[in-house]
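To: structure desk
From: M.T.
Subject: fold request, one chain
Message: Could you run this one when you get a chance? Sequence is below, nothing fancy, just the single chain.
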Amino acid sequence: MEVTPLSSPSPIHGLHLRHKEARFLAVASTLYLRTHRGTTTYKHPILRTSHNAPQCSLRAISKKHENVAWLSVSPKLHVQNKFPRDVVVRSELTAAGSAGDGYFLPELKVESKVRGVCFYVVTAFCAIFLFMMMLVGHPSVLLFDRYRRKFHHFIAKVWATLTVAPFYKIKFEGLENLPPPDTPAVYVSNHQSFLDIYTLLTLGRSFKFISKTGIFLFPIIGWAMFLLGIIPLKRMDSRSQLDCLKRCMDLIKKGASVFFFPEGTRSKDGRLGTFKKGAFSVAAKTNAPVVPITLIGTGQIMPAGKEGIVNIGSVKVVIHKPIVGKDPDMLCKEARKTIASVLTQS
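Reply: Done. Structure tokens follow.
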């Protein structure tokens, strides 16, 4: 997206506006927002700054996407001539594909909704039969493989593969970087979509995801998660978070692997968020390697907040070399840098 003040012939892009920079924009009486795809030109009246709100801000996003506000200013603030304190004017002209840039979502079409319905029909159909197999084999799993549960994860791999195969293709890179199956490790990746779980399950590795407790209440899927040994977590509950980390460390010590989404939530625009340090504290305290994984494309097929649609597309999974260390901060920075490096190139 190109953001151009009326009084300036050159585009402004990738600027972080604070105080004096914001006053520069206030010179223009009208702000033109236009995209390279030729969509409608939008206008916004003069921006003002005041002593009460010295840091005005603006996020320019295509109005084409109905699920994202094209101007992130609330009506109440608009009437009062006040703006949020700290926002970025973003543009397609910034460093292409950098970790700070998002992606453009395809237009919402009827076919995408139909594909979404078909996706969940296939999911449910496959889950019912495979869940019965998990139930039958569960006693043996508890007796001989209580922590890794390889049989259950094999069933989960078959289920995920059958579910996604009709809808999108997955390309794997760096499979040689995966630790041996019996080596406990901490896996981390960026998080863009509900499809991330399906995609990662097709790897066939016996790692334990961390999931919100509410998901366990879903029929069939939630029950299967329980059998797989998925770790429940109550968000905003410090005790639950502490118990979760302790359980992860216990699993690693007993030979199992765990999987974290360090951002803590799905990215709505593809930008890589800040990493939380829980996963890396677990790795540092247990001397387990951290295996960074970059997911590309899942957020465009099924955007966050739009779980009812499935767009046409493909997914790329890049497995990076393991990182070893005893400093959680170093592990966190290196893992994020590694994942971001691939997002920059995509």
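Reply (cont.): The two ends are 18 Å apart (CA to CA). Let me know if you need anything else for the meeting.
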